[in-house]
Amino acid sequence: MAQSTESYEFLEEIPQGTEPSKSLVNHWKVLSVEDDLDYQRALVSSLEALILPNHTKLHILTANSAFEASAILSTHKDIGLILLDVVMEEDDAGLRLVSTIREELGNAHVRIVLLTGQPGFAPEKEVMSALDIDEYWNKGDLKLNKLHSIVSSNMRTWNYISELAEATQGLKIVLEAARSINSRYDLATFTRTVLAEIGNILGVEEGGLFCMGNSLNPFEDAHVLTATGCFTQLEGLKLGDFQLNELFDDLQQALSEKRHILTPLRSVFYFETNEINEKCYLIVVNSSAQITDAHINLLKVFSENISSGFTNIALLNRVTELAYTHSDLNIPNRNWLKREIQNMSHLEWQQTRLLMLEVNYFDEMKFTFGYEFTQNVLTSIYHSLVQILPTGSRVSLSGHKQFAVLLGSHFELSPELIGKLTYNEVEVEGVAHVSSFTLLDMRLDTLNQRSAAIIISMAESELKQASLKNISYLQHSQQESDLIKRRYSLMGELRNTIREGKLSVMLQPKVCLSTGKVVGFESLARWEREDGSFVSPDEFIAIAEASGLIIKLDCLIFEKTMEALKILVDMGYRIPVSFNASSFDLLHPDYYIFVANCLASFDIPAELLDLEVTETQTMSDYERIQQCLQRFVTLGIKISLDDFGTGYCSLAHISNITAHSIKIDRSFVSKLEKDKNSEHVINMILKLGKQFNFSIVAEGIETEYQKQWLSDAGCDIAQGYLYSKPLVIKDLIAWLTKYNKL
Ligand code: C2E
Ligand code: MG
Ligand code: MG
């Protein structure tokens, strides 16, 4: 191997500085790779003589072959500068070492200065562009002052690059850490993650500690919530119980000065969420390794993330509290109930029953005694329920007057307990207050569905039905579930059927009892499903009313009624047709407009129309419905009060109601032969009708006896199967022709 034997001198002197104190000394690590030992000795002694800025000392390492150099480089990762001879054990050993350093050792930052004694051997330009080296010098040109500038400029560059790389790496870790803590929403997992991530940033795995306390008196209140690694034995302890004095001092300092305390031994972070819940938190991470300025800076950045993490959790808890409790009464609410049901395991589901209680006469009580009183009543009832019910029962206020209870289904509801749950005496504002309840008992395993929202609304509708029927205790049955399911699926089907205009009408004749003449028809809605089966109007009208489809349905039926009426009129039958309307229609402006427009477009006189509305619906909102009816009367349409006798029409209203006829409900007519009471009711309605000038129609006449009895009693008009079932228009015309011939 050819190597220059020329001796080298580093002639120029650099002014000497004063010797710095030991603690301030910075070390720059330089590696000289050189197989010419004389040259290396001279180089090292020149390096040692260099006076560098900021009291920096050189830590000089030497290698005499490329092989030796790579061994040193793999253990000393902090070498900043390599002064590398090109020609050593092989002609290009130095150049190969460059590739090893950059590609195999993956050290991209170390500065490499190539030195050669044979300038022609590796031309500077080509070497610089082919290899990742920083400078190229001829050994002969290397004087002391040059060496000084090479060392100081390259070491400074290396320092910057390394710091930058470290900071980038640190920031990456902090970013990762921030991302990982931001997805933790409960305090326990959040703090465990924070402890682990601080460990990652510091590169230590010694464990950590998390304390929480009230920021108003942290010393008494603070206690350890989470402890990992070397702190594990402290979990659950209060701060005052700590035996580790030094640690205690740091914690106390952080708490009293409300700041982070970062020492070489441990980092203590202080956080508070005063603006939300007056809590303060301490996070402690131990580290035996030296904590650098870079670490401290990273921890400061990360602590900002931790702080916002605590704020987020505190806010989330606050929002959760608000979402799941009744804001005024501080009682678990409907959302809470929903969440409890939704989160049940399969086993829990099978072993749980839902009780729902509605306070009877609640609205009347509110109306009479005011909001505040009823809120106090609800609070007292809540506390009394918690007492009456077995331990472990979960009570909530699921509606404005309903309580819901989740309890084990193994628990027997004894008659005594049912008694207490349906009739309860509580103390309100110092006075005994008695409330009665409607109670629904629903075992969750009897339900064929698991959506909490559907179950709660199912329970509510069953409870409503029970309360309407004045039943105080109702056990949910599978049959009821099936019915609800059927209604729900019919609703979707009905919506499509209406949209496609596929409902039809049938007409049923009304006959004058004294003359036997056909004096009217009633138009009735019919729904034939795809499979050819019919759904009864009693079922689908109730569904349409409950789902808001009724107005669209009745507009469609009205249009079909007009088509049928048009056919009759065109054939010369000027006989009135009645159509059924619900109170929802009457109260909705669109319905009236639709009817009026239809009348105009079909060019049919309004007196050929008769609007039937049930007595019950008319009385439900008498004043408003009365006004609405008046508008139809003004158009020229007549009004009939349908199903009369089944509702509670007050005498005060009957004298003023805008109606032309009353239809006696079929339930009275059908019992005429068997039940004297029906006779009394019908007689009474007839008298009332005569008194106020209503014409009286009897519905559902099926027998000669009923017809005769009603005729004798003075009823004007009859409608029923005795004459004809409701018929499609074609059949009705045939029926009419035949009837008129008789
Ligand atoms: P409603 O208005 O009282 O109609 C009379 C009901 O009694 C009709 O039942 C009719 O078919 C039935 N009926 C008549 N004569 C007899 C009889 O001799 N024996 C028996 N067993 N039944 C008889 P439908 O068609 O099932 O309608 C039931 C109810 O549905 C109607 O009672 C009405 O309240 C409602 N409804 C029907 N169509 C419409 C409609 O287009 N709109 C609205 N809103 N309600 C409708
Ligand atoms: Mg009717
Ligand atoms: Mg009726």
Task: Describe the fold and architecture.
The protein has 742 residues and is an alpha/beta fold. The strands form four sheets. The protein has an eight-stranded mixed beta barrel with strand order 17-18-20-21-22-23-24-25, surrounded by five helices. Strands 11, 12, 13, 14, 15 and 16 form a six-stranded mixed sheet that branches. Strands 2-1-3-4-5 form a five-stranded parallel sheet, with helices on both faces. Helix 27 links the parallel strand 24 and strand 25. The relative contact order is 0.04. Residues 522, 580, 612, 642 line the site of one magnesium ion (MG).
Distance between the termini: 138 Å
Instruction: Please summarize the sheet with the most strands.
Output: 8 strands, mixed, barrel
Query: Strand content of the residues, in percent?
Result: 15-25%
Bound molecules: ligand C2E, magnesium ion
Total helical elements: 28
Number of strands: 25
Residue windows where pLDDT falls under 50 for at least 5 positions = 1-24
Share of helix among residues? Answer: 40-55%
* Integer average pLDDT: 87
Apparent shape: elongated
The radius of gyration over CA amounts to: 47 Å
